[in-house]
Write a structure and sequence with these properties.
By secondary structure, this protein is of the alpha/beta class. It has a single domain, classed as LigB-like (Protocatechuate 4,5-dioxygenase, Chain B), CATH 3.40.830. The protein is built from ten helices and eight strands. The protein has an eight-stranded mixed sheet, sandwiched between helices. Helix 5 crosses helix 10. The protein is globular. Keywords: Dioxygenase, Metal-binding, Oxidoreductase, Zinc. InterPro entries: Extradiol_dOase_DODA, Xdiol_dOase_suB. Belongs to the DODA-type extradiol aromatic ring-opening dioxygenase family. This is Dioxygenase.
């Protein structure tokens, strides 16, 4: 079985940068025992009340941001879809009692392609795009991921793209090396302990138990945190978690890679 991963997509500029974090993204496929058949991917930038499963013959690239260099708007990531895996994901979610629908019109947003172009620059692995619903409880989100766990047995790589500390109010985008806020580190430290111990009960109550959760995951920005919960649930059968990378830019924007499940 392939592991599942949560990967922070950072700011859109990450797509054209070279740094320690992009190098970690470049090397991430080397952690896998074999090349995935397909990628099933939750993006924080696709919110829906009903769980959506996206499938197309070829996904258009969505440039869902503004005020960045023209180079970013010229990037294309021509990933193909995987209808068989999309239909399998749809069936698994239906059987788990999750309200779900297929989507055949939406492309890949920057939560998808900023990460994927570093991991698989040739866009040679088919993608199934999944929406997120921040209005669900952590327990409900975890169960959606758990329902998709059988896909890992079919060499499907399940990814979640978002951010564990993601609050524009505390970011200094003008200086990439600005001093890191201690509260951001404390939140990440709590999260590392909680995930490594596979303490789903504490995770479900992170808003009251985690230090500085109101800053790390503001009420208006929970969609960036929930992909972590989905992909953790996808490894419920193994319950092993390892933080492969953690760095912080712009004072508080965390770049984290979490692996759930083993690479055997």
């Amino acid at each position: 079985m392939l592991p599942s991963f949560f990967i922070a997509h950072g700011a859109p500029l990450l797509a054209i940068e070279n740094n320690a974090y992009t190098e970690a993204l470049n090397q991430l496929p080397n952690l896998l025992p074999r090349k995935p058949r397909a990628i099933v991917m939750f993006s924080a930038h696709w919110e829906a009340f009903e769980q959506m499963v996206g499938t197309m013959d070829a996904f258009p690239t969505i440039h869902d941001f503004g005020g960045f260099p023209q180079e970013l708007y010229e990037i294309e990531y021509p990933a193909k879809g995987e209808r068989e895996i999309a239909e399998e994901a749809f069936r698994l979610l239906q059987e788990a009692g999750v309200p779900v629908a297929l989507n055949t019109t939406r492309g890949l947003d920057h939560g998808h392609w900023v990460i994927l172009r570093h991991m698989y620059p040739d866009a040679d692995i088919p993608v199934v795009a999944l929406s997120v619903n921040p209005n669900l409880t952590v327990t409900e989100q975890y169960q959606i991921g758990k329902a998709l766990s059988p896909l890992r047995e079919k060499d499907v790589l399940i990814l979640g793209s978002g951010g564990t500390v993601h609050n524009f109010s505390y970011m200094n985008l003008s200086e990439s090396d600005s001093a890191t806020f201690e509260w951001a580190v404390q939140f990440e430290d709590w999260l590392q302990t909680t995930l490594t111990d596979w303490n789903v009960e504490d995770l479900a109550n992170y808003r009251t138990l985690a230090p500085h959760a109101e800053k790390a995951v503001p009420a208006y920005g929970t969609e960036h945190f929930v992909p972590l919960v989905y992909v953790m649930g996808a490894a419920d059968d193994e319950r092993t978690a390892k933080r492969q990378h953690m760095s912080i830019r712009y004072g508080s924007l965390s770049h984290t890679i979490w692996q759930f499940g083993d690479t055997k």
